[in-house]
Structures are given as C-alpha cells and as structure tokens.
Amino acid sequence: MVLAFGLSVAGLGTVAYVKLRRDVGQALEGSLRTSAPLQFAPLARIDHPLVRWGGGEVEALALTSNWLVSAGAFGIADEKGDLGQSLPTLKATALTAWRDQAVVGLASGGIFLHRGGQWEELRTGFGTLHVRTLVEGAGGELWIGAREGLYRAAWGATTMDRVDGNPVKSIALGEGGAVFAGGEAGLRRVEGLRAIAIATPDPWIEWVGVAGRELLVVTPLGLARGPMEGTLTPQVGAEEASDAAVLGGQVFAVSQGRLLRLDEAGHASEELLPAAVRRVFAIQNALFVDTFRGLYRRTHSGWVLARPRAEALPPGPSHINALAMLESRLVVGLFNGGLVVGEPAEQGKAPTMAWSAVPGSTAWGVNALLNGGGSLYVASLRGASRFDGQKLHPLEGGDAGAAFALAPTPGGVAVGFGQGVSLPGGRFLSAFHGLPGNQALALASGEQLFVGTPTGLGAIAGNRVLWRVTAGEGKLPHPWITALQLRGDELFIGTYGGGVARRTASKANPTGAGLFEPFPETEGLKVNTGCLVEAGGRLYLGTDGKGLYRLSGDGHRFLPVRVPLPSPRVTAILPGKDALYVGTDEGLARLNLPLPDEGN
What we know:
The protein is mainly beta. It has a domain at 400-525: YVTN repeat-like/Quinoprotein amine dehydrogenase (Methylamine Dehydrogenase, Chain H), CATH 2.130.10. The chain is built from one helix and 57 strands. A nine-stranded antiparallel beta sheet has the order 7-8-9-10-1-14-13-12-11, with no helix packed on it. Strand 21 and strand 22 form a beta hairpin. The longest helix is centred in the first third of the chain and has 27 residues, at 2-28. The radius of gyration is 27 Å and the shape is elongated.
C-alpha cells in the first residue's frame, strides 16, 4: 500500500511537472498578445437623489494632482465625497491615476475612467473584465489585472492588448520595462511579448512588489523575497503577512493587524498605529494604511488620519438579505451574518446612519424580517427569533430548523420553515398535508395564507390547505416561488427564473386556485426572496442581476428603474417613509419617493 501510494504521488508529480512545462512552453512560443477594439463611452448622469451604504474598507487608492481618491465597498470617494453616483454599481476593487485621471474597476465588472467631471466606460471586444488591480506603466500605458488575464491599453488608443490569459490579482513594475503579474495560477514575468513563469513558495499570489533588484510576493504562506533571477524564500517573521507595499526601498507588511517595517537585511520592526491595520498602500511617495477607524498616512511626525472611515455598514460582508423598520431604526439582515441596526444620526435631517451590529448568534443567515408591533420577528438559518430592539430571543417552536419567511395573520405570526409552515396555535402544515412542497420560501396573508415553495404555490385557510398549483400544470411561469405580494384582490408572484405572474381569484370558485397571468417582459428574470413590495402606491420588483423594476401605472407591465444601485443583484426591498430602501449583495441604497416615471 505504501509503495502504491508513493507511485501515485510520483505520478501526480510527473503530471504536474509536464503540465507546468507545457504551460510555460506555450507562453514562450510565439506572440502572446491579441488585440480587440477599445471604445470610451460616456455614461449618462443619474439625477435620482440617492444615498448608498456599503462596507467601509478601502481596497485601492490613487493620488491625482488635485485629490486623494479612495475606492472600496463604499464606492469611489475624493475630498468632496461620493464620486461614483453615475457608475452602474457601488463596490470597487481597483483604482489608479491614469494620466492624472482616476480609472476604476468594479466588483461587478467593467472599467471606468473619470475625466472632465464625467465617467466613461472602457468598452472592449474582450467582453466584461472583472478587474482586481490597475497600474500606470512608465510609458503612460494602463496595465489591467483581471480575473480574465493581463491586459494593456495605451492612452487614446482604439485597441487593447491581452498579454496573458492567467488570472491576475497584483501587478508590479520592474526596471527595464519588466512587468510582474501574479494571481491564483502563479507569478509571471512579462517582457515585451513573452510571459515566463516564476517559481514561488506557493502558486497563489496575493501581492507582488519590486524593491530595487529584489522581487517580493505575498502568498498564503506569507511574505517571500529574493533576487530577480533567483529563488524566492520565505521572510522570517512575516509568515502571517496578508498584504505588503514597497516605499523608498523599504518593505511594509500587514501581519495579523500589525504593520511591520522590514529592512534590506530582513529585520522587522513594528509601526505603532491607533487601530488594527487591514491594508497598506504605497502611492507615489506616500504610505497609507486602512484601519477600521479610517485611512491613515505616514508623515515625519507620525501617523495622521487622512480620511475618516466612510459612513458604512459594520466591518464584514455587505450582502443584505432582509430589511425592516423598528420605530425610527432601520434593521438589516445579512445573508452571511446576523442583524445590523442603523440609527438616524440626527432626527429629521438627511439620512445619515450610525450602524452597529446586534451581538449574539441566535440569528445567522437572515432570510426575512417582520415588524410585529414593538418587536421584530426574524427568520434565519438558525430558526425563528424575536428582536426587542436590544437582544434576540428564540421563539417558542422556532427551533424547527431553518426559517425562510414570515407573515402576519389574525392569530399571530406564521413562519415558513424548511419543513413546512408553522401557524399560530401550534399547527404545522407541510407537503404531507397538501402543500406543493415543504420549503416555504414566501408567505403572504390575506383572506388566505399563500405559501410559495420551490415546487409551486399553495393556499391555507384555517388549519388546512385549500389548493395548490405545481409544476406541469402550465399556470405558473416557473414553479420556484420566491416572493409574494398582495395588492388589493390580486396576488403578484415572483419566481426564480420565470419572472412575475398575477393571480386573481375566480368569481365562480373563490376558494380555488384562480386565474394566472404572466408578465411576458419579465420572462427569465430571477426574483430573490421578499423582493416584491408596494411603496408609494406602486409595486416594485427586485431581480438577481437585472436591477430594480416597477409596475407601470396602468398595471400592464414591469419597467426597469434606472438608478445606480450598489449592485444589480437586488436581494431585499423595504418601503419607508418617503423612501424606498433597496438591499443588494454589495450594500444598501435609499431612494427618495416618488421616483419619476422617466417617460414610461
């Protein structure tokens, strides 16, 4: 057995070696560069009053002749504030100054240049690029590191070049025009039209830098360094490094919240800062660090606050899954977290918020929130609970597995679980009792309690199932029901993959399934859970990847709402006083109501 295992490992090593040689050989053979057309398309200005909140973490910086520009989950900002209102999404992953103009890459995809007070999209024949890093070269060209590879664009050119097809997370410029690009598939040196693989302690490259004639990388094994043509070896004392920067020949590394300064001999000393460090940036002749207190700059007299932390959600992911109001406070339920509370900073003024996370682990992976008059009901992957404004309390019977939906009924709150619907009074109904499925993803309460599941729609009255509609009957555009909204006598049904349908009760059989009418313009749209709400007398629809829609005034069709949401993946909607709150996988937006009809 040991021999067989050894031969297996040796065989795998041989396969890996042959693959590496083949990849390197392909890189060395012939021209790596291909070209595609490049256009600079101005973006339309957005006039909707809009406030957006994402994460406060800084992911990239740029210094122009006028401003310090920062980018991150909060968007793009300079000294005047939000710079990216007209951009299609909020979260930025890359930023640099290109010919003294800010150019940015967005997490949802795309590259955008800001000049003359207006944003322009760099549209290329390579399709949408998911950019991780941007660097201006010595000749004024723009180097683009993306999930799709390494690219180069000359200022004012009508074409863009693809230099290498391997994913890139970091780029560094060396002497003599050398470019080093690293990502999930390793590190490469690019000179002219050749890309040569460079061995590293781990092939996953988080960061690459150049200090004189020395090459440095950050991998999951920490910081490694070595001569340009030699072997990179781990840096003693920086095994936990997660980020690094080079300034004036000195290397600075982030290690478990500390900032280390490494000299040429590799000796480390710690820089003392007022808060834990998460990222470090060397921009021109300045050094910055991002902390949860804000962005600090290193000066001769010490570290000074260069920019306060953006008004943002608490540290961590900003994927919002549910929204509710509790008195004057806005409560946010996170997809991969618990509850976050937004407290208006000053009553009656513009919507500034002081955000704080609710402690405890009673709720995690929040799917739905319901204001129950003084308390907030919470459906999460850890069951059903109640939030009294200070603490979370498990509901009696709320431990029946993951909870997905909530609805008020005359007798109390109904809870949709993964195994059925829990009714007030303790009655529990499932597919065994006639529902189209067990997993209750959506609930809506009227004369009947409507239940949406991944396999169809059902209705409950009293303690029994009245009717159900399932796949194959041809009534629903898609059986996967994710959102339900009653509007008068009509039930609007959102599906994940089939758009929206409208159900009206049959006059001849009012307790039957009724009549179903699809909206053809929504065909194929994926509606996320809870993303059908009525606000300001209009019905709003949130989609997964296609943004926000609204039902026309005559009720005949859904039309897109053109607003710069944090992301086109709408994951929660909440009507508020004179406003509509829209949650996405990259943050939250507040839209003032009423929204204009835009001529539709």
